[in-house]
Amino acid sequence: MIDFSGNGMPEENRTVALGRFTFEKMSADGGRAVALADVPPVLLSETWCDAQDIAREGTGFDPAWESKVR
Known about the structure:
Blueprint: E1 2-4, E2 18-21, E3 24-27, E4 30-33, H1 41-56
Antiparallel strand pairs: 1-2, 3-4
């Protein structure tokens, strides 16, 4: 799961902030958190690389990010 500041409907190209990345095991009644120690190493590595790619496409960390997302 990737938490981010969100995007309303209709979707538009807007400034957003990335939050946390978590792993969840999904079931019919929702998801439950999975400890990093229980995530297969290759999945953790691939997710880390994907997170770096996503962040690299952005503008970088902005200390005033909360005032810039809607």
